[in-house]
Amino acid sequence: MRKQNVELQSLWKDQPVVLFFLRRFGCQVCRWMASEISKLEPELRAGGVALVGVGPEEFGLKEFKDNGYFKGSIYVDEQKKSYKDLGFKRYTAISVVPAALGKKVRDISSKASADGIQGNFSGDLLQSGGMLIVAKGGEKVLLHFIQDSPGDLVPLEDISKALGISAKVKAGQRPVCNDDVCTR
């Protein structure tokens, strides 16, 4: 795998860009989110918008790519500089447990399992992620979203709205959960 440094701002120099910052490539919830966001790829491409995924480490990248979870370009920020610059927090060993076991994460994990998307617990478990949508040339940040919980995501319609494009995709049905059972 060839490594080259890419300046973040170069990604929006010639076109608007949707940057999806994953917590980690092995994360089941992140994989499901990547597959959801990828539903917009045809409309984004047609609108001249780049779709870019950024991960905090190479660990799990090959499996992530091989399984086709994400339809855009993928970069790795091993120094996590862009994560820090954009305010994507790191959990502590204590704060990650309730966050990872929260209802949003359980709901998405259930949906991911139903869609055949599995995950693992390898790599950096403490990094949070988010999304940045930037207009062509970088003249305007159209959306800056920071995950509070690992299950937080930007709805597809909010991504389309931020870019001023119409998308005909349907978001995946989140499971309906009560205290005991999650169903489709």
TrEMBL record:
Gene Ontology cellular-component terms listed: cytosol
Keyword tags: Cytoplasm, Fatty acid biosynthesis, Fatty acid metabolism, Lipid biosynthesis, Lipid metabolism, NADP, Oxidoreductase, Prostaglandin biosynthesis, Prostaglandin metabolism
CDD domains: PRX_like2
Catalytic activity: prostaglandin H2 + [thioredoxin]-dithiol = prostaglandin F2alpha + [thioredoxin]-disulfide; prostamide F2alpha + [thioredoxin]-disulfide = prostamide H2 + [thioredoxin]-dithiol
Function: Catalyzes the reduction of prostaglandin-ethanolamide H(2) (prostamide H(2)) to prostamide F(2alpha) with NADPH as proton donor. Also able to reduce prostaglandin H(2) to prostaglandin F(2alpha).
Similarity comment: Belongs to the peroxiredoxin-like PRXL2 family. Prostamide/prostaglandin F synthase subfamily.
The protein's name in its UniProt record: Prostamide/prostaglandin F synthase
Species this protein is from: Solea senegalensis (Senegalese sole)
